[in-house]
Amino acid sequence: ETGVTQSPTHLIKTRGQQVTLRCSSQSGHNTVSWYQQALGQGPQFIFQYYREEENGRGNFPPRFSGLQFPNYSSELNVNALELDDSALYLCASSLGTGENGNTIYFGEGSWLTVV
Amino acid sequence: AQKITQTQPGMFVQEKEAVTLDCTYDTSDPSYGLFWYKQPSSGEMIFLIYQGSYDQQNATEGRYSLNFQKARKSANLVISASQLGDSAMYFCAMREAPVDYKLSFGAGTTVTVRA
């Protein structure tokens, strides 16, 4: 058990729709990151939130957006879904960055299928 | 350029034997961290072991050890006394500083433990 929970675990959406994925980080962890993992590949960094502010972003278009709430839980929103957005979306939490961020825990992920 | 390279797409190992998973990395930053994760078919990324670039000794965590060769930029994972439950995908990842807010993952190695 990592203490990181994600919902929903599986969902199917239609191309062009919007989706919201949720993540509750481990207690006390103020940093949340999101990753996209396409089938057969390693995860790709989407963005990170630290104390409710986005403080890093990977090579993803603006239709990928997020939020972090005062309790450090987080949401990933994807607008105008495309077929290539079908993937496992992983949330990771850690206690800050630097040395404190050396323990990074992942949730079980949300499997998104776009049809 | 690929930051993390895992050259073994798949490996078979006999139960109770040891297995070594290769990982090479590319960075010009003197301060970085290396991680290994296990991903079963359920999707969750399970943290196994961490090695900091300034750590003098190789990291060990139970049956997992990391063979860190800094000059060669390699961070191989050794799993001793393999168990059937070790069958999974294994990912090597790196976090660089000062841009230390994301993990860069390799493509992964699938390990299958045979009884």
Polypeptide structure, described:
The complex is a heterodimer of chains A (115) and B (115). Chain A has 115 residues and is mainly beta. The model of chain A has no long low-confidence stretch (mean pLDDT 91). Helices cover 0% and strands 50% of the residues of chain A. Chain B is an all-beta fold. The A-B interface holds A 2, 31, 33, 35, 41-45, 48, 50, 55-56, 58, 88, 90, 92, 97-98, 101-109, 111 and B 4, 33, 35, 37, 42-47, 50, 52, 91, 93, 95, 97, 99-108.
Write the layout of secondary structure elements.
The complex is a heterodimer of chains A (115) and B (115).
Chain A: E1 5-7, E2 10-13, E3 19-24, E4 31-37, E5 44-50, E6 53-57, E7 64-68, E8 74-78, E9 87-94, E10 105-106, E11 110-114
Parallel strand pairs in A: 2-11
Antiparallel strand pairs in A: 1-3, 3-8, 4-5, 4-9, 5-6, 7-8, 9-10, 9-11
Chain B: E1 4-5, E2 10-14, E3 19-21, E4 24-25, E5 32-39, E6 46-52, E7 60-61, E8 64-69, E9 74-79, E10 88-96, E11 104-105, E12 109-114
Parallel strand pairs in B: 2-12
Antiparallel strand pairs in B: 1-4, 3-9, 5-6, 5-10, 7-8, 8-9, 10-11, 10-12
Structural class of chain B: mainly beta
- Shape label of chain B: globular
Helix content of chain B: under 10%
Percent strand of chain A: over 45%
Low-confidence parts of chain A, pLDDT < 50 over ≥5 residues?
none
Overall outline of chain A: globular
Bin the helical content of chain A.
under 10%
The major pleated sheet of chain A works out as:
7 strands, mixed
Q: DSSP strand (E) fraction of chain B? A: over 45%
SSE run of chain A: EEEEEEEEEEE
- What Rg of chain B, in angstroms, do the CA atoms define? 14 Å
Poorly predicted segments of chain B? none
Summarize the structure.
The complex is a heterodimer of chains A (115) and B (115). Chain A has 115 residues and is mostly beta strands.
